[in-house]
Amino acid sequence: MNLILLAPEEIEHSRLARIHDPRRLRHLKEIHRARVGDRFTLGVEGGGIGHGELMSLSDREACFSLGALDAPPPPPLPVHLILALPRPRMLARSLEHLTALGVKQVTLLHTQRVEKSYWQSPELAPEKILAHLVLGLEQARDTVMPTVTLAKGFRPFVEEQLPALIEGRRGLLAHPGMARACPRGINEPTLLLVGPEGGFIPFEVERLLEAGCEGIHLGPRILRVETAVTALLARLF
Amino acid sequence: MNLILLAPEEIEHSRLARIHDPRRLRHLKEIHRARVGDRFTLGVEGGGIGHGELMSLSDREACFSLGALDAPPPPPLPVHLILALPRPRMLARSLEHLTALGVKQVTLLHTQRVEKSYWQSPELAPEKILAHLVLGLEQARDTVMPTVTLAKGFRPFVEEQLPALIEGRRGLLAHPGMARACPRGINEPTLLLVGPEGGFIPFEVERLLEAGCEGIHLGPRILRVETAVTALLARLF
To answer: Ribosomal RNA small subunit methyltransferase E methyltransferase domain: which residues (chains A, B) (predicted)?
Structure first.
């Protein structure tokens, strides 16, 4: 927890913050070994970042005196990530990685090789997704919550949503065996599509290329989804 | 398991391989749902890669008829990674990521902010480390085992080992706040140093810069060690 992310309702007259949730109280005590007077980095959800001093800490509440929370959060990546729904444990970690890296728009997509049971996972409950996004923001000292949407059908996604998403963005389909190596250091609005374990099937690759995506690859190594997503984002931006 | 990695003693007269370990037998049955006649990618440790056909599968043994195992493994990354020893769970995942990405030389280093207890972790047992390296190779379809060495003192490492390691390599110290952004697509022998959670202390940074390392950063976001290692490798190579 490199930043304490405050919900607007946790701030009183802009100078005082109170948090009550057991997770952060425990983290302050056990990991930070926090003491009254300690200085912390705090940020308000969707807003600025600054410092505050711990005024009190109990089993029920931590109270901070706030300085100006006026530093901007780190810049986001100019990418909308379309990710084939990974298996639940991988989803959790991938959400944390991609949030820490600065992705702000994520669509979780069904494809042929996504196991249908994944869509029933408790990890897809909005509060579970939110918890992982918060961990990613706390890690990277960011305040801007990503938006995660679910696209449970491949064909409706390609026909109804993809044309609008690719408009004004460079569409990149990351898939082993594509002709072109992943470009480096591009600085333009991007739509990045990453398949499931086992990849997109040929029919899906064809539809995505037809829709205007460029196929790119990361080399001969087959990477886990969470490794591939981090590697792609680090190389592209 | 995108590749079945064979130890030399698992191969009989170059045309037949037998494996007996429960982990891979279970994986073949439960994940691959393997059947006699199925074709698999196999490779011999430190050697070539090819295909083989499953001849029999029981609770005790899988037997493969081998084609030529003569395709080369994917190229390694030209890097020796010096990684401050992460906490055990993070170490396990980091070893898998970096092996899958093609790192072949790893030194796990003690620094001021590495908790001393981490050096007592069962995760550091050679057979545990090996297990994670094997998982990384199986993932990336590689056969060349990385070498992992332990450097339990920072000062002896800097004084006795670093001068020889940096000879003929570009030394890069990844640390927040360094002057230069991580370079992209370098293709030269590199020594990459990555600190622990909380970073190197200023004394350590000074010693490493004095020893000839260039300081580089990954931007304003603070990343977990496993995310940072993947991001650095993907951007550098």
So the answer is: 74-236
Q: Does B185 touch chain A (CB under 8 A)?
A: yes
Say whether residue B224 is in contact with chain A using an 8 A CB cutoff: yes
H/E element holding A166? helix A162-166
Go through the domains of chain B in sequence order and give each one's CATH number. Answer: 4-66 (2.40.240.20), 79-236 (3.40.1280.10)
Residues 11-70 of B with CB under 8 A from A: none
The predicted structure's pLDDT at residue A14: 82
Q: Tell me the pLDDT band of B61, cut-offs 50, 70 and 90.
A: very high
Judged by a CB distance cut-off of 8 A, whether residue B230 touches chain A is yes
CB contact under 8 A, A221 and B184: no
Give Cα A106 distance to the centre of its chain: 7
Strands (E), chain A: 4-6, 11-12, 16-19, 39-44, 49-57, 62-66, 79-84, 105-109, 147-151, 170-174, 180-181, 190-194, 214-217
Task: Give A70-107 pLDDT, tens digit per residue.
Answer: 999 999 999 999 999 999 999 999 999 999 999 999 99
DSSP B145-211: PPEEEEE--HHHIIIIIHHHHHTTSEEEEE-TT-SEEPPSS--S-EEEEE--TT---HHHHHHHHHT
Please determine, for residue B14, whether its predicted confidence score (pLDDT) is greater than 90: no
ipTM score assigned to the predicted complex: 0.94
